[in-house]
Amino acid sequence: MIIYLPARRRNIFMGNALIAENGRTHAIIRIRKNASPQEKYAAERLKFYLKQICGAEIPINTKNSDGPVFHVGRSGEADKIIGQFDWEQLGEDGILIRSAGNNIVIAGNSGRGTIYAVYEFLERTFGCRWLAPGVSYLPSLSTIAIPSIKITYTPSIIYREPHSFYLIDSEWALANRANGMIQKLDTEHGGKWIYARDFVHNFFNLVPPEKYFNSHPEYFSEINGKRTYINAQLCLSNPEVQKIAIESCR
User: Fold this and answer.
1) How buried is residue 221: exposed, middle or buried, by Cβ count under 10 Å (0-12/13-18/19+)?
2) What are the residue ranges spanned by the domains of the chain?
């Protein structure tokens, strides 16, 4: 379900360059010729949502244009627009959104970052929201133009996962920047972070009792004065246990 509010169509950002008016457009969404699957996906999502917002179907192209251009993903043309920039400072999921005249660059340091940049642009510019799987808020606008915008952002938390199987929907996960193990994110979506060696209840996969208990019972729980691994845990205060667990994850 997509919620359109308000119902009355209105204008927004009559600024640098007109993107669309009354369902017509001279703008394009540009990707590089050898665009990654994630960049292609990001461009398609931008096209889809802009059509929902303003009624205009903005084509995706690999060539430049004299009209307004959305540059999705990193490219030589995007680098000319933004000038010298250290992409590595953004980290894996960081984003850059920057406008200049008829152009706006929407990109990340990775494919997933570029997808996130598209959703960030839609949120910041139009107030779009993805409230739950299948429930979104999108405005209905008759006229839109490229806004004056300059954003760089790096997530403070690397691993982001709301732990609810109701929220595994890929569209919702991407829109809300969730990248955890339970989210349904394949290569097209930029992938996801995966736990090392199983999801949970994995202590004995990291430090197997059959390998260590006889020689190092101190690696395991002490219950009523006796070391045991049966219905027990690892000794988390033992620095050797920590080292072995880390090595097992590599």
Assistant:
1) middle
2) 2-165, 203-249
pLDDT in tens, 162-204: 877 767 788 888 888 988 777 777 778 877 877 665 667 788 9
Alpha carbon distance, N-terminus to C-terminus of the chain: 43
Cβ neighbours around 76 below 10 Å, total = 7
Distance CA 182, CA 192 (A): 9
pTM: 0.78
Whether residue 189 contacts residue 37, with contact meaning beta carbons closer than 8 Å, is answered with no
Rounded Cα distance, 100 and 215, in Å: 66
Backbone phi, then psi, for 17, in 5-degree steps?
-150, 130
Largest CA distance in the chain: 79
CATH homologous superfamily for 2-165?
Chitobiase/beta-hexosaminidase domain 2-like (3.30.379.10)
